[in-house]
Design a protein that fits this description.
There is one protein chain. The protein is an alpha/beta fold. Helices cover 42% and strands 11% of the residues. The protein contains 15 helices and 14 strands.
Length: 520
């Protein structure tokens, strides 16, 4: 039902109030920031396109005068070959995540994709030439292009030895580039930073499968041995041995871990449940390794993307291309909104400065993505000497701390506009769960005590507006029931995110600016 979130879990997990720690940990500082699969894919696409275009130009220049390269009769075929290469590689799955992480070159799919790309590129170039009225790709004699003699006859671009040469040299260049990239990516930089937690026997079995697998599925950076003798030795098969699950949680909160693999026997079901319910509230992927004895059990969801028998417990929301799309949405809409409403913001800033003493902006520390503390900007709506940076006392209707200008700004939600700068800076998103100040309570309880799964909201960036706000759940948190409804709506948004849902929320927010009874 709308507003109620069902976590993407492979098992029926009952979440406990145990929260994720915000304490810094020394282990995390040794690891690189979280890799972004979408940006890696874009870089590989750009590399393939550059190699293809440069090789095509070089092969053409070997058999033809250099001045012909700048003519449209040559540019069209070269562009067609490059575009068709990207499309063919994508169609053959050569840009899929499992291939990006692979330890080997997929020779057969790559060969077929290359032959397909050259054939389609040649056909596309000829068709474009026919449609443009130049079936032989002949530049117009007497062209004003600098450096081109006016008395040449014609250039049959798709004829000659350069195309067969490109067929061989281009494939060799792409292969060499992929081999060099493969060598680079099997170096010290981890691609999918993984920690295994469990008992010695299943951990040993899982490590053997990972290390001997064809695909580079996981870069194991540490092990948590879930037994009494965890601290007996500093490492496990050459990998750092972390003290306990608390150390793992601190690493996750430092963005040092991408994936957690739980390797416990089925007899340890309670321990497995406890581990999953703790780490599932963080932005990581969690998989269960059932071992050889659990492969035939009737479990709901299995994942063989990584050539391993894994059960998916939970996944990081809005990842991969979705994260790239959402970031592009944030940047484009924020810049557009800032340009459109800059006169309103300047007017509000002048009104604040002229009617009360103190700064124009109010800075408040709140919990953001992955439980990080961020500094949120707002137009100051209270008298400076009565401001409450940590929200130890929530605002209420008729609050005497609010200035007359501030009351109008809060009523229209215009006090939130400076957070567009937080969005551009990357601390926040335009749409997402609203961040709360550090000392916020609900019904006399901390938010983690009031809602055990509260920390799950922090698996995505906080937003200026959200699904809960456009459904009427905003204002003071004076009861546990209100924060429960907000968290339910936030989790629904996280599990069902789409660009269309974001645009719907933005539209409904714009309609509520002057007609929201819950704003004060």
């Amino acid at each position: 039902m709308p507003g109620m979130a069902e976590p993407d879990l492979a098992m029926d997990i009952v979440v406990s109030p145990a929260g994720m720690s915000r304490v810094h940990d020394d282990h995390a500082s040794f690891f690189a920031p979280r890799p972004r699969m979408a940006s890696r894919t874009l870089r590989l696409i750009g590399l393939d396109a550059a190699v293809t275009a440069c090789t095509a130009i070089l092969c053409f220049a070997l058999f033809n005068p250099a001045w012909q390269i700048t003519s449209s009769a040559v540019v069209i075929p070269l562009a067609s070959l490059t575009i068709c290469l990207i499309l063919s590689f994508a169609e053959r799955g050569l840009y899929a995540p499992q291939e990006i992480m692979s330890r080997s070159i997929p020779w057969w799919p790559m060969t077929l994709a290359w032959l397909q790309a050259v054939a389609l590129g040649t056909l596309a170039a000829f068709c474009l030439a026919v449609l443009s009225g130049h079936p032989h790709l002949v530049p117009v004699p007497g062209s004003t292009t600098i450096g081109i003699p006016p008395d040449y006859d014609r250039v049959d671009t798709l004829q000659g030895a350069w195309l067969p040469t490109f067929l061989v040299v281009g494939f060799a260049s792409l292969t060499m580039t992929r081999l060099l990239r493969l060598r680079f990516h099997t170096g010290p930089q981890p691609l999918n930073r993984t920690v295994i937690i469990g008992e010695p026997e299943p951990i040993h079995d899982l490590l053997l499968r990972i290390r001997t697998g064809v695909r580079r599925s996981f870069d194991v950076i540490g092990v948590v041995q879930h037994t009494a003798e965890t601290l007996a030795k500093p490492n496990y098969q050459g990998l750092p041995l972390l003290a306990d699950i608390d150390a793992l949680e601190r690493m996750i909160r430092k963005d040092a871990v991408d994936t957690v693999l739980v390797a416990l026997p089925w007899s340890a079901g309670d321990q497995m449940r406890e581990i999953i319910q703790r780490v599932s509230m963080a932005p990581v992927d969690v998989y269960i390794y059932p071992g050889m004895n659990g492969l035939n059990l009737p479990l709901r969801r299995a994942d063989r993307t990584f050539d391993l028998p894994l059960l998916m417990a939970c996944t990081r929301p809005i990842g991969g291309w979705g994260a790239l799309i959402k970031r592009a949405e944030d940047v484009v809409l924020s810049i557009g909104l800032l340009a459109f409403i800059s006169p309103v913001m300047l007017t509000a800033a002048a009104a604040i400065k002229l009617t009360s003493k103190g700064p124009v902006f109010f800075r408040q520390r709140r919990l953001g993505y992955n439980n990080r503390v961020i500094e949120v900007l707002k137009f100051r709506s209270m008298y400076a000497h009565l401001s409450d940076a940590d929200a130890t006392q929530q605002t209420f209707r008729g609050d005497k701390r609010i200035t007359p200008v501030g009351a109008w700004l809060r009523k229209t939600s215009l006090d939130e506009l400076p957070q567009l700068l937080n969005v551009l800076r990357g601390d926040m998103s335009l749409v997402g769960p609203r961040p709360h100040a550090l000392a916020t309570t609900a019904g006399g309880l901390t938010l983690e005590e009031a809602v055990p799964v509260y920390a799950s909201r922090h698996r995505v960036k906080p937003g200026i507006t959200g699904w809960a706000q456009v459904n009427g759940y905003r204002g003071a948190l004076d009861s546990v029931d209100k924060i429960v409804h907000r968290v339910n709506h936030d989790l629904y948004y996280i599990e069902n995110w789409s660009l269309a849902l974001d645009l719907k929320i933005v539209w409904r927010t714009a309609r509520l600016v002057f007609a929201d009874d819950n704003a004060f």
